[in-house]
Amino acid sequence: MDAKRARIFAAAHDLLQTHGYADMTTQQVSDRADVAAGTLFRYAATKADLLLMVYNERFREAITEGRRAAAGLSDPIEAVFALVMPVLKGSAEQLDTAILYQRELLFGHEKMLHRQTGLQLVADLEDGVASALLAASQADGPQARLLAERAARLIFACLHLALAQPSTGAHPDRAAATELHAQVAIMVDGFLVGLNKASSGESTLSATSHL
């Protein structure tokens, strides 16, 4: 990254750590980064875009950590859980800010400069989950790939809900990581059942492939 972007990133990162998103202002970021406000907005269109800039890197690091943890695991449930768990664990460090990041990532608008990068990271994570499912099951072919991709999207949805669970008060007697592991197991089992049906000619994939 160029020098100005590096200073803006560092300033936003530090202010998010020390002040939190609600109390951070774009003026504080531009002052700390020693750039004009107009320059700041060339690198991040809004305050929410600054959040995406910083948390995209955290997301990327968590995905990399998950890939390392999943490498060599033959059990598909454990491999997939290892892939997604670092995202959940990292988000717990600043839960409110991580939830805001998820909101802006999934429901932000096209004018945000860093949203597409974040969405590509989601796609990369889902691709990693799908690849782990296919590798563990030793499945191949377009039907298997389609089923794995759908399972991966559902697993990301489970991750998203697990991240938000502590802030909603839902299921207070169940740890978010425990719930996520159980939900991953259900999704993986469903993928394997669907795979068996596909191989035996009982697949319903063709009827829903347009969705």
UniProtKB/TrEMBL annotation:
<dbReference type="InterPro" id="IPR009057">
    <property type="entry name" value="Homeodomain-like_sf"/>
</dbReference>
<protein>
    <submittedName>
        <fullName>Helix-turn-helix domain-containing protein</fullName>
    </submittedName>
</protein>
<feature type="DNA-binding region" description="H-T-H motif">
    <location>
        <begin position="25"/>
        <end position="44"/>
    </location>
</feature>
<keyword id="KW-0238">DNA-binding</keyword>
<feature type="domain" description="HTH tetR-type">
    <location>
        <begin position="2"/>
        <end position="62"/>
    </location>
</feature>
<dbReference type="InterPro" id="IPR050109">
    <property type="entry name" value="HTH-type_TetR-like_transc_reg"/>
</dbReference>
<dbReference type="InterPro" id="IPR001647">
    <property type="entry name" value="HTH_TetR"/>
</dbReference>
<dbReference type="Pfam" id="PF00440">
    <property type="entry name" value="TetR_N"/>
</dbReference>
<keyword id="KW-0805">Transcription regulation</keyword>
<keyword id="KW-0804">Transcription</keyword>
